[in-house]
Amino acid sequence: MLRLTNNFSLKFPEFLKPENKVVQEVISVQSEAFGIGSKKIPFLSKFTIVLFLVLAFSTGKSFGQRDQITTQAGEKIRCRILDETPTRFIYAYVAPNGKVLRNEIFKNLVTDFKYNVYEEDLVTKGNKVVTKPSPVKESAANTNSPKTTDTQKTTTEKANSTITKKPDEKVAESKQNSQKEAVENKEKEQAKTESTIPKSSPKKEEKKEVVKKEEKTETPMATKKAKSEYDDYLKFRVGVRGGFGNMLSKLNTEDQFGLYQEKLLRGWTWGADFAYFPKDNFGFGIMFNNFQSKNSADNMIFKYIEDGQLKADTGSIANKRSTKFVGPVLYFRKNIDFKTMVILGLAPGAYFYNDKGTYNGVTIPYKGWDFGGAATLGIDFLLGNDITGRDIILSLEAGYNYGKIKSMNFSDGKGVVSLANPIDLSRVDFTVGLRFTRYPRYFRN
What we know:
The protein is an alpha+beta fold. It folds into 3 domains: 3-59, no CATH class; 61-129, SH3 type barrels, CATH 2.30.30; 236-444, Porin (Beta Barrel), CATH 2.40.160.20. It has 8 helices and 19 strands.
């Protein structure tokens, strides 16, 4: 009915041409019935392409996760680094539930970071992360998937073989099939009889195996996280401090001896402390502080106490005073950023007062003690970098001390004597401290 020309074009016989015209008319009528002209076909093709792209994009969304951040603990975070500041990284990552989260991490906790480490983006679908199937599963799926072409071939071959078989071969095959069915029926009956017989031991073994499997599934699959040197970061604070102190007691400075005593109110202070922070914002420890001052003069009218009485004399005088404080301390810490902290310390304790006076070559030590308190407010700055370690703290502190000596031993053999006018030990300190959060890594290397 059909024939090919030399140009390999398909032509219809003449008696089929009217039918083609009818078909063309039907097609044209249907297209005009729907209001689709020949000029609107390109617009529809563009619209269908855009719609297909939108649907393809809506089925799965991709989120760029090609960057990688490595922490001090060795954890590698796959993410997209959004911004970098002098102190921290701002990045976004995909949670296991498929949600895109934003987080920040300080640079002192990062050992390395790289851009475009991964070649492909991390694809999410719905609320789950889409992962590629393993090659084993793919091979199994391929083997289990039906092959339409092969099945069609086998069915056609079977049909042809059945047509060409002779009657005697059909009879032989029917006998073989009947024998196979009889054997299968016997095996089924044996299986039923075996199932009716109770077997206690295999069931117990199966139960044990099930329990063992459940125990195995309950155990965590991931290995325990190795302890890092940053697990106890900033939990310890030990160091020394020193600075200037000024006592707040009021004196009569109208005479020369009053001016001499006023100079004894100013001196140097130094101390040490140790603290442990079980939490980031709370800690406790012990504090020691010592305030020292001294002064001397010649040809001065001075006053001193002898046998419990105030006496006056003229000559040389020298004094060395020391006020020591020891007590427990509670610390409250607040982080401004990862390397700057504000610390408040409150310490009840005891003051030990010692005044070693020399009057015209005669030394008379005065001693006394009483309870009091101290408070400090300071700022800690972490020093160092990621290579040498941030183990050293520079502290700037202001302190207030409160206490009064109500009794004193004048070393005259009468023991401790109560004072009519207690000695005021109130003092303000300004100190600079150097402290350590652990043994410095610089010295360990």
